[in-house]
Amino acid sequence: MNRPTPPAETDFGFQTVAWGDKARKVRGVFDSVAGNYDLMNDLMSAGAHRLWKRFTLSCTRLRPGQTALDVAGGTGDLAAGMTAQVGPEGLVVLTDINAAMLGHGRDRLLDEGLARNTRAAQANAECLPFADASFDCVTIGFGLRNVTDKAAALASMKRVLKPGGQLIVLEFSQVAVPALRPLYDAYSFKVLPLLGKLVAGDADSYRYLAESIRKHPDQETLLQMMREAGLEDCRYHNLTGGIVAVHRGWRA
Q1: 99 belongs to a structural domain
Q2: Most buried among 103, 130, 145, 167, by the most CB within 10 A?
Q3: Residue 5: is its pLDDT beyond 90?
C-alpha cells in the first residue's frame, strides 16, 4: 500500500519546519542532552518519572520467555525493567534513532549485567527493521512526540506485534485538572529552560521539550490515532492529573 505524500511542513516545538528537517533537529536536541538525560529527568519531575515508568511496566503483562521491544528507549529504563519480566530465556530489544542516547542505554544495560537477554539497535520508529509479529509487547516512553510521522510510527509498532501483543505509549499529555494548568505552564516555560541552562548548559533544548509537549496530540486524539493504526481495545490512564498518560492497544 502506498503511503500518503507527507505535508510540506511540521512542528518542531512552536516552530514550523520543513517535514524532512524535523528528525535532524530532534537529533541535535538529544545529542545535546544525552549526557545529562537521567539527571535532568530526576530534577525535572522530582523523581516522578520513575513512578510513571513503574506503572507502565506493571501494564506489560509480560511473562518469562517472551519478547519485548522498547522504541525510542533512550537510556533504557523501560528496557531494563522488562528484562526482569521476561527473564533469562526471554529477549528485550532496545532501540533509539539517536546514537548518543542509544549508547548510554546500551552501556547501562551492560553495566547492570543485562547483556544476556538484551539487544540494542539504532532504528527509526517510523520504519522498524524487524519482522512482522516479532514481539509480545512494544513500549515507547517519552518518544512519540518527537517522531515526525506519528501515524507511521504507530503502524510500524503495531506491525511488529504478535497477535494478542500490546503496544504501550507513555507520554506527556494534556493536563486534565484545570487548576494545575497555570502552574504547569509556568514550570514548563520558565523553570525547565532554567534547569537546562544551569545543569546541562542548554536552555534551548529544554525549551523545545516543553513546547513539544504542548504540540503532542491530546489523550483522545492519540487514542483515535491508535485505533486508526489498527490496534484494538485501546484505552488510556491519566497519571499526575494528566501531565502524563499511558495509552494501551492490542493487535488482534
Answers
A1: yes
A2: 167
A3: no
